[in-house]
Amino acid sequence: xxxxKLPPLKDLVVEKDCSLKDTLKIIxxxxxxxxxxxxxxxxxxxxxxxxxxxxxxxxxxxxxNISKIIEKKRFKYLNVNASLESIEKEMGTNLTxxxxxxxxxxxxxxxxxxxxxxIPVSEPQFLGNETLYLNDCINSGWISSGGKYVKLFEKxxxxxxKSKYTLSVTSGTTALHLALASLGIKKDDEVILPNLxxxxxxxxxxxxxxKPVLVDIDENNLCIDPKKIEKAITKKTRAVVxxxxxxxxxxxxxxxxxxxxxNLILVEDCAEGMGTYFKNRxxxxxxxxxxxxxxxxxxxxxxEGGMVCFKKxxxxxxxxKLRDHGMNSKKRYWHDHIGYNYRMTNIQAAVGLAQxxxxxxxxxxxxIMAKKYRFYLNKNKQIFFSKNFSKTESSYWLxxxxxxxKISHARDAIINIxxxxxxxxxxxxxxxxxxxxxxxxHSKKNxxxxxxxxxxxxxxxxxxxxxxxxxxxxxxANLNSVLRKFDL
Length: 488
Ligand SMILES: Cc1ncc(COP(=O)(O)O)c(C=O)c1O
Description:
Oligomer: single chain
Bound molecules: pyridoxal-5'-phosphate
CATH superfamily of the largest domain: Type I PLP-dependent aspartate aminotransferase-like (Major domain)
Number of domains: 3
CATH architecture of the largest domain: 3-Layer(aba) Sandwich
Strand content: 15-25%
Shape: globular
């Protein structure tokens, strides 16, 4: 939760001579189960709904004045200029709200559990029908993979992405595994993958005994570089996985031309690409299969969850069976394949359906966010911006900046300063070939310098749909001021 969703201070304030009844009304309206008690704006105490409940169970009535029940109550508060560290220390793990006063002891702000005070890199928004549909699952008893929401979610997703054969699964990672398995990737096949990505597509190939072949990326759009793909093809190459990193599109035609020429499978990893378009078509429609993730930080979320889409019905049918333990759909407990349990639950799908209902809004918000970042950082000469590339439309899943060469050595220091200020920025993924389990997949003939360079120079900025103008302006002001410190 970020600050812009919290009630304004005035909604949490009660005067010291208020009755318990009126205080309860204020607490109810504020929605925080707490109110700050003041006398002429000066902080006197805090009162919770629990305090009132306990008072009513004793001798007090709804007409009792609250000053009677908080007389001896101890409470915590701090000066508004206190550092985030001291606020965190004062609140510990138990305190949810801490009033903040000025030098005259006047209540001027409040901190809510330190963690919540951060601007997170990405957070979900559940302001639609999520609770309604979830309650329906619980009340109906359909909590596993049976129940109406799985079908409804898949249908709604199919309609949006315009993919006919769509299966919900347990995560973006299992979607990739299922996609490659259903398309027949097997031991010793070579699968070409970008060297700068979240690790899942590389692992999915390894799960099947295939060999990942790590290829460099295009520094403009962060997707796999088509020129490098062609150089990496051997007799054993069976597939190419294209990852739309941070939601950026690329020239998919160029990649398709190569996969067609060499008769290779194309899988699109669209985990970060909900709302990404190439030539006005949503990504996930260009390959033999495509995969999506609904992890908590994704554009829509089901907690954990994913989707896999296929071009051909036959691959969809195989995946459907593999998803359900390889079981024959007409003969229960008869297994035609060694499958997996990758089924999404009705509970996850219920959340997914409610999120789909608000997807257009989420995508729109991300685009507004990207424009605002551009606007507030525009004068900064030390960075490059993420932007759309020819024929593509980015989903801006995570908005990133790229530090120019002369300042990129300071990337981690810049990140640390912003983190201390409560702004959760992130470094980019690491080049895969540098990490121990994957070193063996690096072939010297594939130059990977762009992924190394980019990995070191990128900073991903907070990108939640909840971000308001005030917060983006604040993030940019902090970023600009930190960058100025490193201006050589
Ligand atoms: C590009 C990419 N692929 C795959 C995944 C894996 O998705 P999940 O976390 O749902 O397994 C992610 C997720 O975080 C991702 O960013």
